[in-house]
Design a protein that fits this description.
- The structure is a single chain.
- With about 375 residues, this protein is of the alpha/beta class.
- Among the domains are: about 130 residues; about 120 residues, Ribonuclease Inhibitor (Leucine-rich repeat, LRR (right-handed beta-alpha superhelix)).
- It has eight helices and 20 strands.
- The strands form four sheets. It has a twelve-stranded mixed sheet with strand order 3-4-6-8-10-12-13-14-16-18-19-20.
- It starts with a helix and ends in a 9-residue tail after the last helix.
- Bound molecules: 2-acetamido-2-deoxy-beta-D-glucopyranose (5 copies).
- Keywords: Leucine-rich repeat, Repeat, Signal.
- This is Leucine rich immune protein (Short).
């Protein structure tokens, strides 16, 4: 059989995507569809490094893999992406288990892939700025300190137990550190103070924290802190507002805070206009409410003597109602913040249509 006959056969059977170069079949991928300015490849299957070597990816800056199977996001894979000039990658439903961190990619979104291992090379200069690896099976943050250019790191819903906060001290531009839904119990054995000069958003929700080492955290720009759904029993709210002078949003709900912490938190956060979510504790009413007995008596113009008890009960009921109303207002404020954040995300996606240079992950 001659080469030209093979070529013709291939054109018929390989639907014009594969062709022969020096005996090897080359798979030339083309965009199946676009989402905004992201080129999408559906059902790509690349497993063996030889397959990757024989793959040519579209010459685009933003490339998304949907379904199919990649298996190993290898060094060779990274090289092929680099050759195509790809700067931003997302992969969804591709079952990547092993990631060799790419040094030339700026934004990498590998949510929900079953990732178990990330390989980071200490001598490599990484340009990565946005890294989202949520909903995977990572257990370790080993060598993440070499990703010094990160602005955003999202590792929600993995299996991480220990986070040495110093890991992020090498990332002067880190703004968002999202670690929710792991098994974090401790922040390592070091007692050194960690400065994260750009951090505005820290999410530690849904972990197993019993205490926060506030005295170790120097986070001068922190605006939004979530410690929701942990095992905290105490919260030093006055230390929190001192350590994080710009704090505007604090979610400490779903923790079993003691009455002292609860009472102090309400006062401190209301006073500092920090939008806060803290569960109502089963503390005595007087403990939970800012006014004391004496003040209550005065506002009613009654000195509680014989008939005083019924008045006190009424006062308590009113206080309870005020408290519940205040909580509703707080929840609505949180929702407004959410809406604002959602609006910002939408605006960014509009920008993404206008100028891909400012693109953020729309997925
Ligand atoms: C990808 O595979 C799924 C299921 O196998 C199929 O429904 C879909 O049409 C495929 N997409 C493309 C672009 O080939
Ligand atoms: C993935 O690639 C790395 C480096 O290229 C290699 O060491 C490893 O064995 C590969 N793993 C699998 C499962 O192919
Ligand atoms: C604050 O943090 C929480 C938890 O990470 C997040 O759900 C919320 O959207 C954030 N709010 C703003 C305004 O960034
Ligand atoms: C409220 O904050 C101010 C300073 O910001 C402080 O002087 C005052 O004592 C605080 N009040 C309460 C009840 O904590
Ligand atoms: C904001 O967006 C998230 C995800 O799209 C959604 O779950 C949430 O309900 C939205 N929040 C509001 C207040 O619309």
């Amino acid at each position: 059989m001659t080469a030209s006959l093979l070529w013709t056969l291939c054109l018929i059977t390989c639907v014009s995507v594969s062709f022969l170069v020096r005996g090897a079949v080359v798979r030339q991928y083309t965009c199946d569809s676009y989402f905004q300015s992201w080129c999408q490849l559906h059902n790509a299957t690349v497993h063996m490094d030889t397959e990757v070597q024989a793959s040519v990816f579209p010459r685009v800056r933003q490339l998304g893999f949907i379904y199919g199977s990649i298996g190993n996001f290898s060094h060779t894979f990274n090289n092929q992406l680099f050759k195509a000039g790809v700067l931003r990658v997302f992969a969804r439903g591709t079952r990547i288990t092993h990631l060799t961190m790419p040094s030339t990619i700026e934004q990498l979104y590998l949510r929900d892939n079953g990732l178990q291992a990330v390989e980071i090379e200490p001598r490599t200069r990484y340009t990565l700025r946005y890294l989202r690896l949520q909903m995977n099976r990572l257990r370790s943050l080993a060598r993440f300190e070499h990703l010094t250019q990160l602005l955003e790191l999202n590792l929600c819903d993995n299996l991480i137990e220990v986070v040495a906060l110093d890991t992020f001290a090498t990332m002067p531009n880190l703004r968002q550190l999202i670690l929710c839904g792991n098994h974090i119990k401790t922040f390592g054995s070091s007692t050194a103070v960690v400065l994260l000069p750009s951090l505005t958003h820290l999410d530690l929700g849904g972990n197993f924290l019993t205490r926060l080492p506030l005295e170790r955290w120097q986070l001068p720009q922190l605006i939004n802190l979530s410690v929701r759904d942990n095992l905290l029993t105490a919260l030093d709210s006055s230390l929190i507002v001192r350590r994080f002078p710009l704090l505007r949003i604090l979610d400490a709900s779903a923790n079993a805070l003691d009455c002292h912490s609860y009472h102090e938190a309400l006062q401190t956060f209301v006073n500092r206009s920090v939008v806060h979510l803290i569960d109502r504790r089963m503390c005595s009413v007087d403990d939970a409410i800012v006014l004391d007995r004496e003040a209550a008596g005065r506002t009613n113009g009654i000195i509680p003597e014989d008939g005083g008890t019924t008045v006190m009960v009424e006062v308590r009921h009113l206080k309870e109602r005020i408290f519940l109303q205040q909580r509703t207002i707080q929840q609505q404020r949180m929702e407004i913040e959410q809406l604002r954040a959602n609006l910002t995300t939408l605006m960014e996606q509009f920008d993404l249509v206008a100028g891909p240079a400012r693109a953020l992950d729309p997925f």
